[in-house]
Design brief:
This is Putative glyoxalase. The chain is α+β, with helices and mostly antiparallel strands. It is built from two helices and nine strands; from the N terminus they run βαββββαββββ.
Length: about 130
């Protein structure tokens, strides 16, 4: 299991607004700002996102390469996938696959794909077999 991911973005403030909107429908609503001066020399400032007491997705100012990264976020339902997709699109995302079953993976794999403001590939995904009813 992953503990955290850092994503370098060109404009942290703009990306914080985007991810706040896009991740909220997934229940990723906690935010934390980390002052890099609290860490070892050269540590970047970080803008964190999380849920249930865990911060696991962090943004940092830097050079972005959208083609280099794909991040999949867990959704608790198909409705949450739809809502995250709609929120991301309203916040400036580019469509990269409207909400639907991804039959090439599994008929129960429901997802939506967007490109964020830096061109990073994001997926909001609900896998019914990974959730307890």
């Amino acid at each position: 299991m992953l503990d955290h991911v850092f994503l370098s973005v060109r404009d942290v403030a703009r990306s914080v607004v985007f991810y706040t909107a896009a991740l909220s429908p997934l229940g990723i609503v906690n935010r934390l700002d980390y002052d890099g001066r609290q860490g070892p020399p050269g540590h970047p400032d970080l803008k964190g996102f999380g849920a249930d007491g865990r911060m696991f997705f962090w943004l940092r100012e830097g050079r972005s390469d959208g083609s280099s990264t794909h991040v999949g976020f867990v959704a608790s339902s198909k409705d949450a996938v739809d809502a995250a997709y709609a929120a991301a699109m309203a916040a400036g995302a580019t469509d990269n696959g409207a909400p639907a079953a991804r039959l090439h993976y599994d008929p129960r794999y429901y997802a939506a794909n967007v490109l964020d403001l830096d061109g990073y590939s994001l997926e909001f995904v609900y896998k019914s077999w990974q959730h307890h009813a």
